[in-house]
Amino acid sequence: MYDIPGEKMTERRTALRAPRALARSTATGAGTAAFAPAGRQRGPFSVDVRLRWLGVSGWEIAFGRGHRRRSILFDPYLSRMPFTNAEGSTEPGIPLRLDHEAVETVAARHLIGAPELILVSHGHFDHMADVPQLLARPAWRRSRIRVLCHETVSHLIAAMGAPARRLADAVLVKGGECLQFDGYTVEVFRSLHSRRPDHGYFAPGHRLAPPPRPSTLGDFVEGDTLAYQVSVEGGPSVLLMGASDVAEREMAGIRPDVAAVPMTTTSAVHRYPGRLLDITGHPPLLIPCHHDDMVTPLTASPRLLAASSADSAVRELTAAAGPGSRVVAPRHLDAMDLAAALA
Q1: What is the CATH number of the domain that holds 228?
Q2: pTM score, two decimals?
Q3: Is residue 24 part of a domain?
Q4: Does the residue 265 lie in any domain?
């Protein structure tokens, strides 16, 4: 764990938990103020917060106005390269074919600027393979960009040639941390990767040191899967997840205003997303993700992108939602005004 100058880091107690409505004591020593996790705010909000879907589980959270607008990226995978063989299966030996031009186009034309943070849920290619290119982007070289990730992801990013100064500035997390930044907090949760119908999943494993440069999809091993809650001061709190499963005891009692809910195949996972919504109190705004085809270019026409999204994801999430929740289908690269969506 790192000490961050000018920022407070706390660890979430996991052995015995008091009710989340109560303030938690920090783990940073005597004299540090107690940390009370953000509760559901419902508005009105004094800070403009917008959420832009980058496809798969990727998001840009933008907040503030004008020249003071700031952003955070989560699982920004923009290449959308082919990932199946002739039989339609995803195999570890499929070659890595990143689309550097597509990454640059989306970053230049659709993102609001250099993000302050890049949050990564786990090490699979469709969540972090484009992070090294974004970290090395010349147009962002003067900006400080910090990566929050598990150790495995940090080693994969290093193996792909991410700039040394970005690697040195990364923050390794394991789940349980509450990080205070200027104007917002990031809470990190241990989570689980979704399962295939046969109860297995793609590319498990960890990296304890930088491996050879990845050249196949299977080189991007999971590591540990993490979820994040970003709470903007004066704005809504947003739960971000990278895969369709949940470790209930890790997130029980949180009350996000918005939940971005991955909706991949869930037949092998008991009552997902019902269990997720139950433990989070059925957030007022639910946004399905990770249900697109993962290959249609983000710069394609909106009609093509809409056709690549599965209506069943919206129906399944709606069926699990409580009466106080609203399900909104995102549109690729469109910025959603969260205050308006929550109104």
Answers
A1: 3.60.15.10
A2: 0.87
A3: no
A4: yes
Q: How far is CA 119 from the centre of its chain?
A: 6
- List, for residues 140-184, the tens digit of each pLDDT value: 999 999 999 999 999 999 999 999 999 999 999 999 999 999 999
Q: Does 20 fall in a domain?
A: no
Q: Compute φ and ψ for 59, nearest 5 degrees.
A: -145, 150
Tokens at residue 135, please? 């970290």
Give the integer Cα–Cα distance in Å for 91 and 98.
16
Q: 80-105, pLDDT tens digit by residue?
A: 998 878 777 778 889 999 999 999 99
> Residue 34 falls within a domain, yes or no?
no
Number of domains in the chain: 1
* Confidence check: pLDDT of 259 > 50: yes
SS3 18: coil
Distances in whole angstroms, Cα of residue 181 to Cα of each of 59, 111, 116: 19, 21, 10
Higher pLDDT: 309 or 103? It is: 103
Q: For residues 96 and 247, what is the distance between their CA atoms, to the nearest angstrom?
A: 30
Residue 343 CA to residue 321 CA, distance in Å, equals: 17
Per-residue buried b or exposed e for 216-245, using 16+ beta carbons within 10 Å of the residue's own CB:
ebbbbbbbbbbbbbbbbeebbbbbbbbbbb
Amino acid type, 308: S
pLDDT on residue 268: 81
Which of 201, 206, 240 minimizes the C-alpha distance to 220? 206
Print the domain residue range for 53. 45-85+92-342
- Residue 86 amino acid letter: A
